[in-house]
Amino acid sequence: MFFLKFSRIPVLKIACRVANMILKIKNYRYENMKTIAQFTSVATVAILLLFSSCSNKQQGSNPMMGGQVAEYLVQEVTPQNITLYQAFPATLEGEQTVEIRPRVAGYIEKIFVDEGDYVQKGQVLFQLNANDIRAQVRSAEAQIKVAESQVATAKIELEKTEPLVEKNIVSAFQLESVKAHLQSAQAQLAQAQANFANAKANLEYTMISSPTNGFIGTFPYRVGSLVSSSVAQPLTTVSNTSSMRAYFSVNEKAFLQLTKNLEGATTGEKLANLPEVDLILPDQSVYPQKGKIEIASGIVDPQTGAINMRASFPNAEGNLRSGGSGNIRLPNYLNDVLLVPQPASYEIQGKHFVYVTNSENKIVNTEIQVIAGDLKDVFVVTSGLKAGDKIVVEGITTLRDGMQIKPKLAGQAVAKSNEPSNN
């Protein structure tokens, strides 16, 4: 009866009464041990009731512990065809970039163009001081005249000797000696003529012209500088930029992904079937002309694991300059790939995971492999999932491996590319 009576009293009232009774016990000075035992029993019951009440409240707040299964949004992964864009840093060079170097030594006397000018093939760029070379031309010309006179003298000597040999006045040996002297004079004449031609060529080399159309580079040397063919830096460069070449590198994995779905028996044939590519300029705008992949190195750099490639872009308006930079954006066409929303995954130490529901509506923590790209809000899954799997797409921070849920099917993930606008 005693316990039934207290069981009808609310828990908080019991706790208060127990506290008061414990205070009164101290005044009894342990005179009635039976009373102490009764109040101890009451206190124990009150504490148990209090814990039971708190436990019931906690169970009511947790649907898993209260027998209720929480509802979570899930999504079925299905194969899709997408285009994945990847960007690679590139360096721009003109179709033809020529170093302008002097072929003869001399002081720069005149500069006819300025840095950055556009020049035509054959246009004069520099003039070197030619005084010394002109003197060499005159000297070579004089040597020709001397050699010519020596040849003439040798011919006269031969004409005089031949009749004397016929009359046995002089020996045949003397005749052969005269002929040899004539041949020597003729050789000296040829040498003098070659020296003259070389001196005239050197005189022409003092006028330095552009070998191609293009833009002038910088001038490391100015008027009055002594230059020669062995100087460390060229006088300038001329870049033919009517067609620009973009040089870039891709890692071996990206190269294989890029070419594996292309038609062709060889790498060259596959590259020929690559679609046109875009050039992203430093201001993030897209160059209006499309480019074409031309070559790919047949060797993987053992230091970097990269393959060097080249794309060509038309540049009739001259908007691109040699030495510039940008990013080559390559399209990678993927067929029958699985997509998962990025918020449906989480990352631990560089690895990606999702929660997959099984036939019992229990979730399984599953690692997935993904492709890096420019898709918005979704990952391209290469392994870890199969078509038809259902993954939890919201509230994943509240989930635990093996937890049972009530799945609610959501729509399919859609790939949205970060493809820049041409506007």
From TrEMBL:
GO terms for cellular component: cell envelope; plasma membrane. Residues 336-397 form the Multidrug resistance protein MdtA-like C-terminal permuted SH3 domain. Keywords: Coiled coil. Residues 130-202 form a coiled coil. It is found in: Cell envelope. Transmembrane segments: none annotated. GO terms for molecular function: efflux transmembrane transporter activity. Residues 138-206 form the Multidrug resistance protein MdtA-like alpha-helical hairpin domain. It comes from the Bacteria. Residues 97-238 form the Multidrug resistance protein MdtA-like barrel-sandwich hybrid domain. GO terms for biological process: response to antibiotic. Residues 248-330 form the Multidrug resistance protein MdtA-like beta-barrel domain. Belongs to the membrane fusion protein (MFP) (TC 8.A.1) family. NCBIfam families: RND_mfp (TIGR01730). This is Membrane fusion protein, multidrug efflux system.
